[in-house]
Amino acid sequence: MIHRNLTLFKWDNFLGGLWPLSTLSIVYFEQITGSYALAMAVFSLSSLMTTIMEIPISVFSDKMGRRKALLCSPILVFLTFLLWACAGQFSCSWLLFFGALCWGTSMAVASGTLDALVYETMEELKKQGDFNIQYAKNGGWNQIGLAFSAISASIITYFFSIQVLAWISVFPALLHIFIVYLFVEPQKRKNNQRVSSYKHFLIAFRRLRRNKKLRFFAVINLIDNAFGMASFRFESAYYQLFVSDWLINIARFLKQICGMISFFIVPYIRKIGMVKLFFGSMFGNIFVRALGVALSNVLTPFIMSMVNLFYGTARTANADIMQQEFSPNQRATMHSIISFLSGILLAIVMVFLGYIGDVYGPTTAIIIAIIVKLSTMIVSLCLLKKVYKNA
Q1: Which residues contact 387 (CB under 8 A, 6 or more apart)?
Q2: Which end of the chain is less crowded, N or C, counting CB atoms within 10 A of the terminal residue's CB?
Q3: pTM value?
């Protein structure tokens, strides 16, 4: 029966990416709030909420089961999209922030729990060595959902307003609830339930602190995630300098197609090793992004869409490296401790880049994010041999 999860993972990831408003969300929020800083503050609040809820939910997931925890996510996403659609309909900024609380909680639920469910499903099928293949397939389907969102958003915004897009985004979340309900729980964690939640957290924290290799990749992940996600949310505001809204969605469609390709090629190139794949992908991503900003013309959105050729390979390699280092009984909790730290940094960076965008313009905000990401990767590459030698 656990085999059913493999099919459900595809639908779960596809529907998880099916948010037509995604590309223009920062534009939509700015129209309601009248400020890029306040618009980015919506995502910042959601990040803070994720940070607060990460560890309690992951402990619940480790102790009580993946399916029970995961089912809360699409319910909260549905409520989020409903509140955000109403915010534009009634010109109420407060509904954006209430929605952000729900969105942040839903992200906390899915954060470590979904990856843990994938790994444990493969483990129960005695195919844990193929975790990176399954993870890549899931990511590919997520990119298909995002691509479908982008192309449908392009068509809708060509004929209708962004407000219509916000209402259409509500409906896929309903179907997502049904898909998650069908997941099958892996048979494990019975012994884990005897440990108190506080002790469970302490065990996870100590194992994370003592694992040098895991710490190393965790630091890279939290910095890259903070500046990468913040610049991602700010991209559409930057692209508005060069093209109209419907063309932004075309560029996003191309970006998701590139992401789909990136995930689906992982099984064919994984022999080079996950560490090499990770660093090569990260530098490729930064190079393409920098090239787009250097040109800063009508071609920029389409050139920068090519960054996703490296997104899937980097995400898969990073997830594979970390899952190999996580302990079985604290898998979701260890992931969420890392996400907790990343969430704090992300919340700060979101507001910071929003402020930079208001004062100096979107281009400057994007350039700062690229410089930080490049600096992090150069320093990390210099320390790599030392980390593996002492691990």
Answers
A1: 212, 213, 216
A2: N
A3: 0.72
